[in-house]
Every structure is written in structure tokens, then in C-alpha cells.
Design brief:
Blueprint: H1 9-14, H2 32-50, H3 55-63, E1 69-73, H4 79-84, H5 86-89, H6 94-102, E2 110-115, H7 120-141, E3 148-152, H8 158-166, E4 170-176, E5 187-193, E6 204-210, H9 217-234
Parallel strand pairs: 1-3, 2-3, 2-4
Antiparallel strand pairs: 4-5, 5-6
Helix pairs in contact: 3-7, 7-9
């Protein structure tokens, strides 16, 4: 029997977004299916926060792309401490700091850090595919990257300590973002020029929601490479560097090009 009031527009809209819209109701509450779906999404978000970082598997996937890897740890000794003490996640453990400082110094234009952050699930799913899309752009620009650093119990600012210890020109931190109820596996990318301990978030550029359902790998890689090129050319990141990568795709600009290439 057809609906005398016509088709429900919420049904059409809900098919276009994972956001919770047009859920319906059962009396004064939500339908049982929506309550269960919410509970499942919440459980997945919690699991993403607490899941252990499988650095061995992530490292193997990254090495298969042609990168070297090394592992470091923050000053947070375990996950519970990491969640309670964000400050410890921003500092290297004494052992990791000593190991980085002891490495032979080599010029590095763009250091790459892959960090578990608040969603190991995001790193497991998105880090290697993003680096796979980014590597040809790095090679084209001729940037020296050094080994990809796999960081345990890490916050974004740990990249500053890593970059300072290695003496790099710029660092990009690929990190699991705080899980949402519709996106427990989103990856973020944070770019900082001249990293050093004490840098603020205003001195970084960020790309967020990197995943197949959000900012896809090829698009994220292009934007990140464009920003990195501009950062190395201008000597800055953060509020002074605006993402104008889309302008490189306008017909008047000719072939796609990367700053510093």
C-alpha cells in the first residue's frame, strides 16, 4: 500500500550520509534498531582507542613500499597512562630520545612519523595506503625522508621531539584521530616546519578524516605534498600557510605541479 503522504524525504537523505538523521521514533524514544546501532558504534569507537598498535604489521606494509622504518615510544609507559596524561604522549621516552640522537645525522627534508594516537585502527587501515599514494609525489619532488618513524603511545607533538632529535627540515605526523561514532578509523596528518619541542598547534597544518569514506588517499597525498612543498619553499607552516592546492588543478595552471619539484 502506498504512503498517502508520499515518500519520506528522510529516507533519501539518510542514504547520502553516515550521520544519524531521520532515525524515527518508537513512542517517546528511538526504535530498537537505532539504539542497538548507536551502542555498536560506541563500542567500535572505544575499541579503536584501546586496540594495541600493531607496529610490526604496519611497518611491514610500509617497508613493502620502499621505506625504511624504526620504532620509538613516548614517555607514557602504557595505554592507561597515555589516556590520563596527554603531556607524556608528547615527549619521547629517554631510551628513544637517546637512540634518535645517536643515529648518524643525514639531511632530511621531510620526516614521516606514523603514530597510534587515539585510534590504532585508523593507522592499521589508512597509514600504508596513504604513504603508497604519497611516495611517488615525494620521489618526484626529490625530498629526502629518512626512515619512517613508528611511534607508540604518541600525541601529535611527539613529532616535534622526533624532528628536533633527527635535525629535520619538516615533519609530518600521520596519527589516528579521536574516534567518532560514525568514523572510528579516521587518520589525521599534521605538518610542521622546523619542528622543535614547544611548537604550538597554530604552527602546524592539518588534514583530517583521511579514509576511503572521507578524504581519499590520492587527494590527501596531493594536498599533503603541496603543503610540504610550500612549507619547504617558504620556511613556515601553520596559520601563515593556507591550503591552496586546489589552484594547482585549475586549467590555467597547466599540468599538476608540486612546489619544490
Amino acid at each position: 500500500m502506498s504512503d498517502p503522504f508520499g515518500p519520506d524525504p528522510w529516507i533519501t537523505l539518510s542514504r547520502l550520509t553516515p550521520a544519524r538523521i531521520g532515525l524515527g521514533r518508537a513512542g517517546a524514544g528511538l526504535p530498537t534498531r537505532e539504539v542497538l546501532a548507536f551502542s555498536l558504534a560506541h563500542a567500535r569507537a572505544r575499541d579503536a582507542v584501546h586496540a594495541p598498535f600493531d607496529a610490526e604489521a604496519v611497518g611491514a606494509a610500509i617497508q613493502a613500499l620502499g621505506f625504511e622504518t624504526l620504532e620509538v615510544a613516548s614517555a607514557a609507559p602504557d595505554r592507561a597512562t597515555y589516556l590520563r596524561r596527554p603531556d607524556l604522549g608528547r615527549a619521547l621516552s629517554p631510551e628513544s630520545l637517546e637512540a634518535l640522537r645517536a643515529r648518524p645525522k643525514a639531511p632530511i627534508d621531510l620526516a614521516i612519523v606514523v603514530a597510534d594516537g587515539l585510534s590504532s585502527a585508523a593507522v592499521h587501515a589508512q597509514a600504508a595506503p596513504l604513504l603508497g599514494a604519497l611516495k611517488p609525489l615525494i620521489d618526484k619532488a626529490g625530498w629526502r625522508t629518512g626512515p619512517v618513524v613508528l611511534a607508540h603511545q604518541a600525541r601529535v607533538a611527539l613529532g616535534d621531539a622526533i624532528g628536533e632529535a633527527l635535525g629535520v627540515r619538516a615533519v609530518v605526523v600521520l596519527i589516528g584521530e579521536r574516534p567518532g561514532l560514525s568514523s572510528p578509523d579516521s587518520l589525521g596528518a599534521y605538518l610542521t616546519f622546523a619542528p622543535r619541542v614547544g611548537r604550538s598547534d597554530a604552527e602546524r597544518n592539518c588534514l583530517s578524516n583521511i579514509r576511503p569514506e572521507g578524504l581519499v588517499f590520492e587527494e590527501a597525498a596531493f594536498k599533503l605534498a603541496w603543503l610540504a612543498g610550500e612549507a619547504l619553499r617558504l620556511g613556515l607552516t601553520g596559520v601563515g600557510l593556507k591550503d591552496e592546492s586546489d589552484l594547482a588543478r585549475l586549467p590555467s595552471s597547466g599540468a599538476l605541479s608540486l612546489p619544490g619539484a
